[in-house]
Amino acid sequence: MIANIVFASTFGLALLLFGMKLMEAALRQWAGSRLPEVLGRTTSTPLKGFLTGTLSSATLQSGTAVTVITIGLVNAGLLPLGQTLGIILGTNVGTCLTTELMSLRLHDYGIPVLLVALAAWGWTALAGEMQLLPRLPKRWIGPMRFGAAALAGFGLLLIGFAVLQSIGPQLLQSSSFLELTSKAEAEPIWGVLGGAALTAAVHSSAAVIGMSMGLANSGALSPETGIAIVLGANVGTCFTGLLASLGGGKGGRFVALAQIALNVSGAALFYPFMSQLLAAASAFAPDDPAAQIAHGQTIFNIACSLLVLPFAQLMYRRGSSGAGKSSGLPPAA
């Protein structure tokens, strides 16, 4: 049984991660070339940066990708430090789209979605390079091809979610797993630490939260522990940005450290109120543990961003003047 659980959980998480990375790669290839220019032009105030960070993260299905791009722009001197604060807040909200999509109980349609995506990809090839079907307008081929790849990634994500959900009954027969979950329910800090460590290891908060949602759907994990994992995943997701900043200058490290400060502060602030956070999420989905975890993540990230946003203008002005003096970056307009 243990071998089956390990194989299924590893395979399900791998599908989940691969699906997310395929979606991110396809959407980034389609829209990513325009993203640096968009970030530079539409982040002149914290509110604009917040909206741009939210939309960019939701479009790319990855807040980490937007954070890494932001660090690169700051290191290159193309984006003032003060304009990054709103972006960081926005990425936390935009990344919730993935888990909200997973909460819609679409996992039964993973294989049909994947087949439709493969058919659409094949159509672009047959009508394009192979010329075996009537030719499509050139301007259609690129968006259709990248859209098909993103849809295939979404299909793999749904299949992975279904695989993770299927191991729930076996986990409920494991005394070791029950002991771990009981400890996490009695001391939620272990759920927070576990979520942070696993997110740092796999570089995807959405994958870790998606895994907890799958287990919660099958009854193997309580929503309370899922909320603790959400707080931890929000901290663990900073690890990728920190790694990306190590090879750059002070500006990139400032962005990474600002993200860590904001996310750790948010998790610490909400830790004593996890039961209230779960109650608020349960109001939207009373009988759906997976949706409660997804909604809890969304409420948590929106609340944290709205709490910080009023203070971001002051931080923005100080960061802009400090960046112009100390790192040679152009001041914000």
From TrEMBL:
Question: A Gene Ontology biological process annotation?
Answer: sodium-dependent phosphate transport
Q: Does the keyword Kinase apply?
A: no
Single GO cellular component term: plasma membrane
Which Pfam families is this protein grouped with? Na_Pi_cotrans
Keyword Cell division assigned to the entry: answer is no
Enumerate the transmembrane spans: 65-89, 109-126, 146-168, 189-215, 227-247, 254-274, 294-316
Superkingdom, according to UniProt?
A: Bacteria
Membrane topology is: Multi-pass membrane protein
What InterPro entries does the entry give?
A: Na/Pi_transpt (IPR003841)
The compartments listed are: Cell membrane
Keyword annotations for this protein, in alphabetical order, are: Cell membrane, Membrane, Transmembrane, Transmembrane helix
Molecular function (GO) terms listed? Answer: sodium:phosphate symporter activity
> Protein name, please?
Na/Pi cotransporter family protein
Higher taxonomy = Bacteria, Bacillati, Bacillota, Bacilli, Bacillales
